[in-house]
Amino acid sequence: MKINCCFALLLFCITGFAQEEKPPGMGIKLNATAAAAVFDFPTLQLGIEKRMGKHLGLFAEAGYQLYKPRALDTVFVKTKGLKTNIELRRYLKEEPRGRKFYVGGALFYRSNTANDYTYDSLIHQNGIIKRLGKDAFWFKKRSFGVNVITGFDFLFKKWLQVELYGGIGIKRTMTKDFELQAARIGNKGNEDVIGSMLSRDNMRNGWGPNITLGARVGRLF
Fold first, then answer.
1. Closest by alpha carbon to 143, among 174, 176, 114?
2. DSSP calls for 140-167
3. CA 94 vs CA 55, 89, 100: distances in Å
4. pLDDT tens for the 221 residues of the chain, in order
């Protein structure tokens, strides 16, 4: 319900501002950062921006995971992931050489299914020898949220676009584990590079902060 309300508000803002000037064009962009993501999962991610006036733009982006960071010994499911993002942008000022500064708001959704592993607590053998037990499992992870976005859009040769962006916001994450035998998730494998810090329940499930940084390259038509 909250997501539907956010989309309705976004569409209302678009219709309210879209009449300011004649749309100057459309751009297609490749997210170079998403293809090499290490904090969640890599995706081949493409976006389309529709300029609805000199100062207003709507950007939509989607990406699918085509490869996994590394292979694991135990495989339960096929690794797959999806990222979507929609932004309403307001371009504030145009600098020399086609550089434009913008601010905006973004709604995003991510889903990821993958195999992983963790280490169980110490296992006592014969009361003397201790060893760490490796526990393979698989998980489904879903996240959605909202970001405040700011960035620069550089235009070269009147058609080549290079964009640098960053944002901060809030997200809700829902993670469900399968085939997990360990009492808790400790030092992990592929789910997140941050590792054991993300094993805390409030970071794998529930509300928390979200930070995004990246670069896009594309063409303006």
1. 174
2. EEEEEEEEEEEEEEEEETTTEEEEEEEE
3. 10, 14, 4
4. 544 444 444 444 444 444 444 445 788 999 999 988 877 788 999 999 998 877 889 999 999 998 776 777 788 999 999 999 999 999 987 766 667 899 999 999 999 999 888 876 555 556 554 556 778 889 999 999 999 999 998 888 878 889 999 999 999 999 999 998 877 776 555 444 444 555 556 577 888 899 999 999 999 88
Give the CB-side neighbour count of residue 46, counting CA atoms within 13 A: 4
Q: What is the reported pTM? A: 0.77
CB 132: neighbour CB atoms within 10 A?
12
Token duo for residue 212: 């995004």
CB 105 within 8 Å of CB 146: yes
